[in-house]
């Protein structure tokens, strides 16, 4: 199973339409592989894709690369993906299955408050952002260069 680093935060009919759209996008990503898949949503609104078949590993890797993957835990120095949950003067809060606070001085995107940086770069709530985990999490270099 792959937990995709995006959120389905709408309810009702809109949620069903969003799931249909996501299924179509997943099919575009892995439809040519020899794998069956089922798309669902976790309790925290992250979509899951359960995979089965000879190309399961390849499909998992494609989805993790395309969408980013929410993992069960973190190791210092490794890069992960979270969605932008909120921001304040202290920094960005990313939802990576658990809240990860990237302090303002670890954003590395130039001068200004986190709110000013968010506005300057057009970052919207729930956008996936890569971060490097550690005692003090930081935006990942590849995210700063994007």
Description:
By secondary structure, the protein is an alpha+beta fold. It has four helices and eight strands. The relative contact order is 0.16. 29% of the residues lie in helices and 28% in strands. It has two domains: 2-67, no CATH class; 79-144, OB fold (Dihydrolipoamide Acetyltransferase, E2P). The longest helix is centred in the first third of the chain and has 19 residues, at 12-30. The strands form two sheets. It has a five-stranded antiparallel β-sheet.
Identify the notable features of this structure and list them briefly:
146 residues, alpha+beta, OB fold (Dihydrolipoamide Acetyltransferase, E2P), 5-stranded antiparallel β-sheet, 4 helices, 29% helix, globular
